[in-house]
Amino acid sequence: MDLNLDHLKVEFETTIRRLAFFVGLTHNLRSDEEICAYTVEPASNGMSFGLLLGGMKAEKVREGRALLAQWTTEQALRDLVESFEHLMTPPFHAAMFLLTKSGGIELTKAKKISRAFDFKGLKDKCDQYREHVGMAIGVERHFGTLNKFRNTQTHRRSIVGSDDIDDVTGTMETSWTALQIELVSESGTTYTGGEAIGVVLNEPASVHLRVVDRVVQHVPGQRLQLDVHQLHEIMVMMHMEAQMFISGVAKRLVELGAKLQTS
Fold first, then answer.
1. At what angle do helices 58-101 and 107-117 cross, to 10 degrees?
2. Which of 26, 104, 127, 164 could in theory staple to 99 by disulfide, Cβ–Cβ 3.0 to 4.6 A?
3. pLDDT per residue as tens digits for the range 5-49
4. Can you tell me whether residue 208 is helix, strand or coil?
5. Backbone dihedral region of 65: left (phi > 0), alpha (psi from -120 to 50 degrees) or beta?
6. How far is residue 202's CA from residue 246's CA, in Å, rounded to a whole number?
7. What are the C-alpha distances in Å from 251 to residues 5, 122, 125, 247?
8. Pairing of strands 190-192, 46-51
9. Hey, which residues does 181 pair with through a beta bridge?
10. Distance CA 98, CA 136 (A)
11. What's the DSSP call for residue 195?
12. Whole-prediction pTM value?
């Protein structure tokens, strides 16, 4: 079978590195007064970069830098979601092929499922894997909220609408997992997250790394926002999930009869 899962994994990791570079670059520009003001204009060969005209107030330039940093962070999340969708697509089609080959599913039905899969979002793709491939995605519930975040960005200019909110909470929730450091002293005092870094103790202590849930709530009419630290945590979660996904789907495809190509 001409399916190289190692290549798919490297491609996704390359996306994360690229996004981290651009987010880090614009985040640093946000507060670096040494960087000249700049503008971006359409040009015949793409885009033209240049300096802003003189006379613009410093606070306006700073505001523009802040908006650029926020916009880059939001677009990075959208790219992450769509890149994970791409990661999931070739193995799914391979699984459908193997299922038809073994007689596990009728060919016409498999073709219909495969065609529909290409147009589904991240959450629906997770559902399809569970239903048709027999494989669960570990952070599916978080993927559902990130998928909604991406859809609101794409279709509603990042403004939370009535269709986005949960009837119970009255808000739109975006959630993900994060690795949190905990420092526990011998006497039982616990230092969590940032307060655990650089703390000086006069007694023995143990260090723990825990997986915790993060939740951000957005109210109707609010513009979606994520800061660079939150995006970093989401990147880590998706990178870890990509590793587990590739490992899990490789095992499942072999169970279905595949002989996989590796780099």
1. 170
2. 104
3. 999 999 999 999 999 998 988 888 777 665 555 556 666 766 666
4. strand
5. alpha
6. 45
7. 11, 21, 19, 6
8. unpaired
9. 209
10. 18
11. G
12. 0.84
